[in-house]
Amino acid sequence: MACSMVSNMVCGMVHGAGTAAATGMLLDVCDLHTVYPSARGDVRAVRGVSLAVAPREVLGVVGESGCGKSALMLSIMRLLPRPGRIVRGAVRLRGVDLLGLSSGEMRDVRGREIAMVFQDPMTTLNPAYRVGDQISESLQVHRMTPSGASISPPRNACVRSRLWQARRAREEERDYVIELMRRVGIPSPDHRHLEYPHQFSGGMQQRIMIAIALACKPRLLLADEPTTALDVTIQAQVLDLMEDINREMGTAIVIVTHDLALAGDFCDNIAVMYAGQVVEWGPAEAIMEDPLHPYTRGLLLSMPRLGSRQPLRAIPGEVPDLTSVSSGCAFAPRCQQRTDRCEAEEPPLQIASGRMLRCHAVQAEAHNRARFRGCVAR
Amino acid sequence: MRLSRLQVKLIERIAATIPLTLAVALAAFVLMRAIPGDPVDIMMGEGASSSGEEVAALRTQLGLDEPIYRQLSGYLKGLLRGDLGYSIIRSRPVAEMIWEALPATIELAVYAMLFALALGIPVGVVSALKHNTAFDRVSTAVSFVGVSLPAFWLGIVGILVFSMTLGWMPTSGRIPYGLEPRHITGFLTLDALLTGNMPALGSALRHLCLPAVTLGLGVAAVVARVTRSSMLDVLGSDYVLFARAKGVPEPAVTIRHALRNAMIPTVTLVGLQFGSLLGGNMIVETIFGWPGLGRVVVDAIFARDYPVVQASVMVYALTFVMVNLITDLLYTVLDPKIALQ
Questions:
Q1: In terms of residue numbers, what domain contains B73?
Q2: CB–CB of B224/B196 below 8 Å?
Q3: Tell me, what's the ipTM?
């Protein structure tokens, strides 16, 4: 399949030869297209995104508002709000195509294999239930015990022993909830698990949301701007927590953010998105030190720096209307390096200088450089 | 003894009903006397043949010749003693009349509300779940019609179709004479259940059907509309998306996560509507010959039976306040934020 070839190549490129095989990937998104039908035509929120996440990896998906980051996350979870839908592509979790699963099978994946945390904890926790109950709900819907085993009720046990077992299970569940709350850094969890979300601060609410996401020990955590609604010191604490979880529990994390600096500090790899496409994807260090795509460069230049007295350089122009994207490169109208080819032909996602890149100009440059080096060598 | 916040709040609210009741009593007293004509005029009839002396004697007997302030002070003194006075027309204690009629009115209002909730909430929920589909459009249109139809028209059409033409339902009354269950609470269906009198229960329910539906249909329409819009709000909320992301099955998302939060506006509405059901069923009670407070009040207004009207208005006001108190208590169950404030 052409799609998996691209993916293999892409994964090999970004993750190095050791994890090159797509089968070793935890998550593998392949040429994914998502649209939201609207009165003005289809909004193409995700336009052919290919990405892969290795086990234990932290991937940052960076881009400005409306570039399709959240739509990508919701597509992976198959939770796009109607009438949004996935048009084509594949989302594989350990080799299984999630788009081919029945809705019941997909429900088993959500929360258990892939968990998600959202931007604003104040609106994401249900105001009507105690936080402890919201954490244990994850276990209950997946019929899991705190030890991770699936619950299968004994067939021929008498009523009394069943009741006793149920009580034991409840107690175990409560202990696990308290332990989980302690793990995410909530003080005195033994009585706070009985409180309601509004009795917690924003940072604590975000920790509770992370605890809910971690309840079933998922392999992958999708975090959609998890720190945007928090103030800076709390942001750092929440990121530290996520880093610990990644290190200790081995949970791979995809973190969506518009903050390139945050992604640079926190992630192993970064994928930069623009107008529904990944335009540059590679190791975080390489991208932060030597951004190749003109859009990534623009993002880095528009970042405020401490001590710098230079005015910020914003990227001129506006994000294109995703209902009518031109046939060429979506960034071309705002790009200083554009050529005629950029306006006529959409650049493919190709390997360039140790990363994946979607840019004619940079690729031509790299090609020329390589040829020049070839000539010199000869 | 230390009281919880909830208890303190309850006591405050109940205490606040005392000045309110007095204000309502005063307003009823003044308004009734502002209407032209008094009970004696009505009793004697227009162009009365009776002599001026007879009229004057009757006025003196009823205490209507005294100055207004004396009448008012007498009335208020009576109230403070818990005495609602005597009906001028029927020569019976007003309290007794109200005590007889009130269960019928409350029973009708309760069944009307049950019908409204049983119809309105599911329709609202399903329209929200099937947002912008044929079901949603039809139910929105029908509920719009339901809100607009006046109860007197619905009642008459109901009687014409179901009682006169099809003969399924009785045309009027609460229960046929002789079939009444032993009096315990005054609520016929409850009394019939408590005494195990099944024929009486069946008959009482059959008599309740048409008036309850007539009274409840408009409320059902409003409940459906409010439930639909609050459900739509909640279904689009982050916590519903988060519940789905946890892997919660769709029925549980709808009922546990969405409906409970969507019920808060509906509960407010039910509280207000229940009050207006009690007050507004004068028309329905008149159409269906329902021996409730509404009919007592209508008769009393036409007869200028001052004590009866004044007392009934107070009862209405008190019921309204109580229903709102219950609504507030229900909030504390639905929304933990309110419980702590």
A1: 38-83
A2: no
A3: 0.85
